[in-house]
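Encode chain A's predicted structure.
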Amino acid sequence: MEDSLDYRAMGSRVRELRTRLKLTQENLAEAVGVSSSFIGHIERGEKKSSLETVSRLAASLGTSMDYIVLGNNVRCDQQSCPLYVDLKHLIAAYGDEQEYSPQITRFVQ
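Encoded structure for chain A:
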């Protein structure tokens, strides 16, 4: 089976988001839990990433996996985003909402 994913385009999206957030490859690598050289390989489309790594990239860059992989710009607001509602519910039940709200709200528009 032939790969139908455009790894160079994926890497370009990662680089564009990283630079927009004023992160270095080292900063992003630390957040994702990989080496900075691996981030460079991803950005150049030279290496494939596991789903876990793509998930951590998306979270660290404040976007969706769908955007990184396919370029689909999926946005949701706080009322219609099921993930946001679930996270808010869990934090209200088990944690300090003031501590976590800034991290959650950066993922929704």
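The CA atoms of residues 88 and 101 lie 8 Å apart.
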